[in-house]
Write a structure and sequence with these properties.
single chain, 294 residues, two-stranded antiparallel ribbon, 9 strands
Length: 294
């Protein structure tokens, strides 16, 4: 980071220096400003924004400046904020995040919303599964909001499952989630609801992703094969066997993949019920039902 102003610097001055350093590192100015403030509030001991704004012109301790500079240097190397802080909020719940899991993003919240709408058609006591659970954000959110449901959370990564277990314990639902190291559904049957945020990035596109994703997030959670839909097709096949009549599958997919997803569903024993677009109007979430159940 650039040389600090004459000591003692104020939070306002430190934030400006951090913002400029991140912008020089190639981070978009608006994001740089937001990230610099978040990291400074962390260096200040976890201040909320109201306290930061109220005291941004007070002198800051020298050790705060040193801690902030170390955090800013990590972000300038394009390490994601979620990994620097070790946490990310999802649907009002805080999740621990490491390099072994995808950072929870806004788009999978649509999966939870659609899954809850599907759950309203099911008996309160239902078997739910989350395929490729990662941080556990989908499984845990559903366990919190469906208190009578039993949840299976699978992942091929033991390290990811360790993070998910920790998050489940934090939110008091570990006793209702069975964590299993397995591909897809691991042979489960009789499920009423399956959710997933599967890998869907075409292999050829991985190297074009921002460094925050390409370098710091697990490739196994990103790479969906040549057209990005290899895991989606496998998921459809597994869900066809695991869902009971009247059951639902809800999953996320990528931009410009809607037609491919529709074709994959049409080639399976399942039926496309609806596709949900995100806030930008981009189709991102598929809601699929088992044929013969409705």
């Amino acid at each position: 980071m650039a040389a600090s102003p004459a000591s003692p610097a104020t939070p306002r001055q430190l934030a400006a220096l951090g913002r400029a350093h991140l912008a020089r590192a190639g981070i978009e100015p608006g994001e740089a400003a937001m990230d610099a403030e978040l990291l400074l509030r962390e260096a200040l001991g976890g201040w909320d924004r109201a306290r930061f704004l109220a005291h941004q012109d007070d002198p800051a301790l020298e050790e705060v400046g040193r801690a902030f500079e170390a955090l800013i240097e990590r972000r300038a190397r394009r390490e994601p904020i979620s990994l620097i802080l070790g946490r990310r909020e999802f649907r009002g719940l805080e999740f621990r995040v490491t390099c072994d899991v995808l950072t929870p993003r806004p788009e999978p919240e649509l999966v939870v919303e659609e899954a809850l709408a599907c759950a309203a058609t099911l008996p309160p006591v239902a078997a739910v599964a989350d395929v490729g659970t990662g941080s556990g954000c989908l499984a845990i959110s559903l366990a919190v909001e469906l208190p009578a449901a039993s949840v299976l959370a699978t992942d091929v990564s033991a390290a990811a499952l360790a993070v998910a277990r920790e998050n489940a314990a934090r939110h008091g639902v570990a006793g209702r989630i069975a964590f299993e190291q397995a591909s897809l559904l691991g042979g489960a049957t009789g499920l009423a609801l399956v959710v997933s945020n599967p890998p869907y990035i075409p292999t050829r596109d991985i190297e074009t992703l921002p460094p925050e994703v390409r370098v710091y997030e697990p490739r196994v959670a990103l790479d969906g094969g040549p057209d990005g839909l290899d895991v989606v097709r496998a998921l459809l096949a597994a869900a066809s066997e695991a869902l009971r009549p009247g059951g639902w599958l809800v999953f996320e997919f990528g931009d410009r993949q809607a037609e491919g997803v529709r074709a994959a569903v049409a080639s399976s024993p399942l039926e496309m019920v609806r596709v949900r677009a995100d806030l930008q109007g981009i189709p991102r979430t598929a809601v699929v039902g088992r044929r013969g159940g409705r």
